[in-house]
Amino acid sequence: MTAEILSLTVNGTKVQVLYDGVENLLEILRDKLDLTGAKEGCGYGACGSCTVVVNGKAELACVVKGRARLEGADVLTIEGVAQNGVLHPIQRAFVDAGAVQCGFCTPGFVLRLHALYAAKPDATDDEIRAALQKHLCRCTGYETIWEAALLAKRYLVEGP
What we know:
Elements: E1 4-10, E2 13-19, H1 25-32, E3 51-54, E4 57-60, H2 67-70, E5 74-76, H3 89-96, H4 106-119, H5 125-132, H6 143-158
Parallel strand pairs: 1-5
Antiparallel strand pairs: 1-2, 3-4, 3-5
């Protein structure tokens, strides 16, 4: 198969990459754009470590592929969440709640909540739980992640 140019916007910057039609979004981000915040934990969409925001929705980058899904897409990765060296309120909440252990899964949790709160700032506890259940963390019992999610919701309204 011949590689073609794929155009998309990543973290607010328009980019073009050679795309052979086989790579998934995670491979494009990590291997072609050197954005390594999204991690490959399972490779088939079960763990959430590769979560990014695509066109406003949380997506598992390891399973997003195909020109139809990627051409012109607007992608937000963890590298684009903080602005001018200032942590986003969701990131600040994870730090303040002590929810960052090894950090492998943290970007996925942050971006899942980013998409949720952008679409539904008044998300219910059940909606937050449903979002968090799409992720696996091997370092913690999820209590601090839950606390961070609630704190993030408060920070987005009141500020850190």
